[in-house]
Design the sequence.
């Protein structure tokens, strides 16, 4: 008999169930209360009930949890300092979408050696998220694989659906069941329509295939996520954070009867993939806010201990501490002074309080 299935599959490795992983890395009551409060604060910013600026900032990806914890401790102190005008949420990205191929993040390959120990990766992700929350920092991540949320989403305060997956029905359905505020990026070509359609689909009830807490294949029935918004990240035709681009985004959101809430990703095609240009993008965003813009709710920065990125793959012992192995970042000193500058520049918005 001819074999007709699994011809290209080498192995299927069973994973612990979400319930087993949660028992191994449990969420404490204090963490639950913190996550609920952080999500509520972000929701208020999305719906203009809180004037603070939402800043999603941190490494492009987490590959060395010790270095990222070092980063997080510095960020937590800075977050406390600016909390009156800026709500800082740390980028804690464990899943990387790739244009073609490449390292897909700590969950998929935690040992960075192609061994793809996903069970270990999921556990490390949960442990690291708990560490960040205990520092008093809300967590942000990109959710990529539709099974991942069952393992980690209870520890996430804001999530993104990336430019490469915003058009995917699977990801829109997943978004409709998620419990946290969520940003859909515009497409890699810069078009807004995929993100607008994604917000519409993600806010509606959906039924789709997923896994339950015991890891069994299940039909998942959702309510729809009311806290979806757009993230402008530029595209192949250039950046999209100018006043004209923002006005166009406001127009299409209004036409679709969606809240006019826009987060600007200062990295990716908005900085022409030159990380050192992120500060100029952020300054322009704040300039627009001070000129009276009310639709921009915040921004995203890719930042690490040290600037730039380093080639990968390469032997782990040769990797430089605190340097990204995915997209380039701005360094900590630049980040710290930029966030302080942002805090000072937002003063006019709070002057009447
Ligand atoms: O933010 C990260 C990258 O831009 C994204 O994962 C795509 O990376 P790649 O084009 O290097 O694959
Ligand atoms: C992959 C990312 O962004 P985008 O989807 O905009 O390329 C990211 O923010 O890590």
Sequence:
């Amino acid at each position: 008999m001819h074999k007709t299935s699994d011809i290209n599959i080498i192995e299927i490795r069973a994973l612990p169930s979400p319930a087993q992983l949660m028992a191994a890395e449990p969420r404490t009551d204090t963490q639950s209360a913190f996550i609920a409060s952080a999500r509520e604060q972000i929701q208020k910013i999305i719906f203009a009930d809180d004037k603070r600026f939402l800043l999603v900032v941190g490494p492009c990806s987490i590959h060395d949890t010790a270095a990222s914890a070092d980063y997080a401790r510095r960020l937590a102190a800075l977050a406390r300092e600016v909390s009156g005008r800026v709500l800082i949420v740390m980028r804690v990205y464990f899943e990387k979408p790739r244009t073609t191929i490449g390292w897909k993040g700590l969950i998929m390959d935690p040992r960075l050696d192609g061994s793809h120990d996903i069970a270990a990766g999921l556990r490390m992700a949960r442990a690291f998220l708990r560490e960040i929350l205990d520092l008093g920092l809300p967590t942000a991540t990109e959710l990529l694989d539709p099974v991942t949320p069952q393992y980690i989403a209870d520890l996430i305060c804001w999530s993104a659906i990336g430019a490469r997956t915003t058009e995917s029905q699977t990801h829109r359905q997943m978004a409709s069941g998620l419990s946290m505020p969520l940003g859909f990026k515009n497409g890699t070509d810069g078009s807004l329509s995929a993100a607008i359609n994604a917000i519409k689909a993600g806010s509606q009830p959906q039924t789709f295939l997923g896994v339950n807490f015991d890891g069994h294949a299940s039909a998942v029935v959702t309510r729809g996520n009311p806290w979806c918004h757009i993230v402008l990240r530029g595209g192949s035709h250039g950046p999209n954070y100018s006043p004209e681009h923002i006005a166009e985004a406001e127009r299409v959101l209004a036409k679709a009867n969606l809240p006019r809430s826009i987060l600007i990703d200062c990295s990716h095609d908005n900085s022409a993939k030159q990380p050192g240009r992120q500060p100029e993008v952020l300054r322009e965003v704040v300039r627009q806010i001070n000129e009276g813009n009310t639709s921009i709710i915040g921004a995203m920065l890719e930042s690490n201990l040290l600037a730039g990125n380093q080639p990968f793959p390469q032997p782990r012992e040769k990797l430089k501490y605190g340097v990204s192995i995915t997209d380039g970042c701005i360094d900590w000193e630049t980040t710290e002074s930029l966030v302080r500058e942002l805090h000072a520049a937002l003063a006019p918005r709070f002057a009447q309080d």
Q: What stands out?
A: The longest helix spans residues 29-46.
